[in-house]
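[SOLVED] Need 3D model of a two-part complex

Original post:
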Amino acid sequence: MKRHLLSAADLSRDDAELVLSTAAELRSLADRPIKKLPALRGRTVVNLFFEDSTRTRISFEAAAKRLSADVINFSAKGSSLSKGESLKDTALTLEAMGADAVVVRHGASGAPHRLAHSGWVRSSVVNAGDGTHEHPTQALLDAFTMTRHLGSLDGRRVAIVGDVLHSRVARSNALLLATLGAEVTLVAPPTLLPVGVDSWPVETSYDLDAVIPKADVVMMLRVQRERMNGGFFPTPREYSRRYGLDGRRMATLQDHTIVMHPGPMVRGMEISADVADSDRSVIVEQVTNGVAVRMAVLYLLLGGAQPVGGDE
Amino acid sequence: MSTYLIRNASVLGGDPVDLLLRDGVVAEVGSGLDAEGAEVVDATGLVALPGLVDLHTHLREPGREDAETVESGTRAAAMGGFTAVHAMANTEPVADTAGVVEQVWRLGREAGFCDVYPVGAVTVGLQGERLAELGAMADSAARVRVFSDDGKCVSDAVLMRRALEYVKAFDGVVAQHAQEPRLTEGAQMNEGELSGKLGLTGWPAVAEEAVIARDCLLAEHVGSRLHVCHVSTAGSVQIVREAKARGVDVTAEACPHHLILTDELAATYDPIYKVNPPLRTRADVEALRAGLADGTIDIVATDHAPHPHEDKDCEWAAAAFGMLGLETALSIVQETMVDAGLLDWAGVAERMSYAPARIGRVADHGQPLEPGSPANVVLYDPSVRRPVDPAGSASLSRNTPYRGMELPGRVVATFLRGRPTVLDGALV
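Solution:
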């Protein structure tokens, strides 16, 4: 693996499969009474969050702590965009504290890339979501969740539905799932597909009803409230009718098809409550798997030399 | 005042001749001129061009003296072979009154490294709401003839029409920063395959082209002349080409960085490559070069845009738009146009001296190197190659996108009205 995890494109198929198999070993910890391993004892992981994201931060925090790392949470509200302390000065501060890994969430696309490549810090940088660019650990946990239900992803059909234009989850998933051999179809109104999407390793469609009956996985993306009034589509109701996953549409899925959502959900908008709470929904399991996958990423970036599980 | 005899200069790339500069003018041109009492400058192997004229420079003073001052900016200009620059109006306060343009003009005279022609704002405070006192700026000591809200677009069609009409009274020109604001809200880089991949908000070519097309039609309708700043797309070149063919009185400029750099550089997320308008694709670069070669693009203008280090040493979205340009412009034109066989040195003189002086109605610059012309001369060695070293810049800022790139050519000497501002490649 590379020293940093900035983009799902940084992962070769071997890398990705190593993360997933490592996560599978670590996942079994979650079912034990003592959930801790000594693998990263004495190492320091900094969670540097310039954007509110309670669930991702908690997930990384739990992952680092279960590997016995010291964890520092740094919520830098107000990046240099809002004239607070600059990303650079924050990075220099963390460097001075001796961070081994920096997990960064930032509203600006490319901020983790700058952190990793500007000579500000020497530690490993993990992208925990940057602007509308990428969120590679989310893609890893999604792939991990899919493999637990479907086995190998080779030739599996994954529909990713919603605001692809602004979604870092969609970008990372498209890249990683293609690496793992899945066939991805992005489904969105034309206004929410990025320019140049035809060069991505995916299919696209404007027609949800045509795509989902063949899908093995249907992943719904959140539609952010601020997009609803941005003229990307006429009304939330129209969006729900055309691109929402409700009980009627769920009835057209194959028996084994799972429904995913990276959260937080807008129930009644992109996904109806009965779908979110149905047996097909693996949304809660995604959260559990998130900790295991992030443990695997931190372990492989920082500790990778020793076998997982230490002396056991 | 000293007399200078320039020996064996290749004027516009022609056969070597001597040039005698005396009393601020080119006194004689010929072979074996008498050096009596003159300081001799050996220009063997050097190309002599008329002093370069930049129609698009940001000198940042007043307001952002941490980025550039009139003095430091004109030093950089002289090092780049310029004898005249047009200082853009987006200072703090904005150059939208006779008082501010006269201040900038006076600072230029005091600095003495090149002539400074202030550009006046089209609208009060660059706000795009009502016309600034264009006539007062035209009548001031600064004698403003170029008006621009550069950095912002005069997007209101009525306001643009009125500005185009109004400046006819004093033979002015509106230099439009063509950027449809709604199509570029939050825009960070050229819209295309790469912007989608990088998650940086796209800046579509149509946002530039739609405004240029509209302005050409407006200028045609009211019979005014129009200048288009920093043309960056192939579509814009074609729109200007078609307008000129119809007889519209439109001129256009291209910036050195748009002639050589492409949007691929945004993949580094290093905002040293962040500029307005953004770096475009290879096809756009080729179209700009072709347009500059065939005269569709009249001039090269630097859009020299100094920024302090902290405004570039950050994440892309937080960084300022713009890059340095004065000291590297001629080298880039050599690399992309002359060495590529698209333009000869006479063509360079036209695009970087005569034409910008004509557009800006600057009488004392952009004259052929003939007896009686103002002695504004640059001596340039096209035979050397050198890496760009930001630390060596005369600008107060260091935001050059060419760091470490090897570029051809070197300005050996610049003369402003017969007085050297640069000799032996160093400021005098």
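Edit: The first helix of chain B runs from residue 70 to 79.
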